[in-house]
Model the fold of this input.
Amino acid sequence: MSQIALPLQIEGSSGAASIVIGNANRAAVEALSDPSAWPFHTAVLAGPPRSGKSMLGNWIAAQGVAVVDGADALAEDDIFHRWNGAQEQGTSLLLITDAQPWEISLPDLRSRLGAAMQLEIGVPDDEMAAGLIESLALQRGLSLADGAADYLVPRAERSFAALEQLVGAIDRLSLERKVPATMSVWRDALDQTIGPEQARLL
Done:
C-alpha cells in the first residue's frame, strides 16, 4: 500500500491529506501520472462519493493540467468549449464526474469524450480499506489501538464514504467518552453507522 501526500489541510485535522493507493484507484493514478498518453489530451475520471476524485484532480492540476471537477453538472456546451480549447492549445484536460455512467446528450461531445482516456475508481478491497482507515485516523489525529483494521475491515461497509463515516464516528465517540479508541468504541461506532452486529449478520 502506498500513498500520495498532498499539502492540503483537512478542517479539524492535524496533518496533510493523502491519497491511499490501492486496488480501487491504482490504474487511474498511473494513467493520471502521464497526461501525454491521454488520447486527444483528455481523460475522464469517474468514481463513487468520497473516493478521492477531487484530491486526484488537485494533484494533477498542480502539474499544469486543466481540471474540471463536477463536469457532469455543467452545461454540455461549456464542456465542449473546454474540450475544443484543449485541442487548440495542445494542453491536457481532466474531466471529473460523479455520474456512473455519465449520460451525455450532445452527440459531438459524446463522441469526443468517448475517445478520451476513461478512468474509474472502484471498490476498495480489504488491504485498501485497512489503509484508508489508517490514513483517515491519521488525518484526524486519532490513535487507534492495535488490531483496529483486523476488527473493523471485515465488519465495515465497503465504500469510501462509509469508511470515512466510520472513522469519524470512532473519533467522535472517543472524544465524547474521553477514552482511547479501543474495541468497545469501534463496536459502538459500527452500530451507529451501519447497525447492530447481530442485525448485520442476519
